[in-house]
Design a protein that fits this description.
By secondary structure, the protein is an alpha/beta fold. It has nine helices and eight strands. It folds into two domains: about 200 residues, 3-Layer(aba) Sandwich (Rossmann fold), CATH 3.40.50.1820; about 55 residues, no CATH class.
């Protein structure tokens, strides 16, 4: 198949996006990023496009969306959702489908809790009504490191791979590699990452789920290191129009799996539920 044209743009409120494909719009709220900008050409953009190109080829116009640069230190998660809601409404003028991954999944839940008028259907991938126990620990440690040094800590790279590093020997071998990799990570404005970490750390919409009428798919892996299977299931169960797909052998990195693309496409393409 021919390569899809990739277009860069900005929603109102300064939200940068990469757009590709044609068809019904699908706003893809990305996971946590250290820099509030579009993925740069090269490896960063190539890896990003792996997560969205199959959805574009399935007939959606994808808007891979990041947060805005220059985020104030006191920004709340509700503030982030409000800015996204305004950007979506200004651009499309109607409710559209939204897919959020990890931090973006938290944001999708905040969005349908606060501004359901801008979302047709929602997909919440690798996220639940609040951060899971391990996610909270790791975000607190990352936040502390960024506040103290302004740099990405090598320990965070190892922690993100914990599920794959059962061997102490393998962890010992990879530690020097992680140190070098962390030094190569460039953070343009650490205050953006710090503000977003603080905002998501306080995120919790559990008590609002029962009032959300948006059709929502919670899609996740039972082996996710950052949330528990019970939290995923509870999120879907408390949503009046929620549905759960949990892959027993998948973890947090399920968003490039063929079954993920298949099930998300089927959910978003199905006739509206009664």
């Amino acid at each position: 198949m021919a390569n899809l044209d990739v277009r860069e743009g900005t929603f109102s409120g300064g939200l940068p996006y990469l757009a590709l494909g044609s068809g019904e719009p699908l706003v893809y709220l990305c996971g946590f990023t250290l820099n509030h900008r579009n993925p740069q050409p090269g490896l960063e953009r190539t890896l990003t496009l792996r997560t969205v190109t199959p959805l574009a080829r399935a007939g959606f116009e994808i808007y891979f969306t990041n947060r805005w640069p220059g985020m104030a230190a006191n920004t709340t998660f509700a503030d982030v959702a409000a800015r996204h809601a305004d950007g979506i409404l200004d651009h499309f003028g109607k409710p559209v489908d939204v897919l959020g991954v990890s931090t973006g999944g938290s944001l999708a839940l905040q969005l349908i809790a606060d501004r359901p008028d801008v979302v047709r259907r929602a997909v919440v991938a690798c996220a639940a009504y609040r951060l899971g126990p391990r996610a909270m620990t790791l975000q607190r440690e990352l936040l502390q490191a960024l506040e103290e040094t302004g740099r990405y800590p090598s320990q965070a790279i190892l922690d993100s791979l914990q599920g794959k590093l059962r061997s102490r020997l393998l962890r010992a071998v990879l530690t020097p590699v992680a140190v070098v990799a962390a030094r190569r990570i460039t953070i343009g404005n650490p205050t953006d990452a710090i503000a977003m970490l603080r905002a998501e750390y306080a995120f919790d919409v559990r008590d609002q789920l029962k009032d959300i009428q948006t059709e929502t798919l919670v899609i996740c892996g039972a082996q996710d290191d950052f949330w528990t299977p019970e939290m995923f299931a509870e999120t879907a169960c408390l949503l009046p129009r929620g549905r759960l797909i949990m892959y027993p052998n998948r973890g947090h990195a399920l968003i490039t799996a063929q079954e993920f693309f298949r099930d998300v496409t089927a959910f978003l393409s199905a006739p509206a539920a009664a």
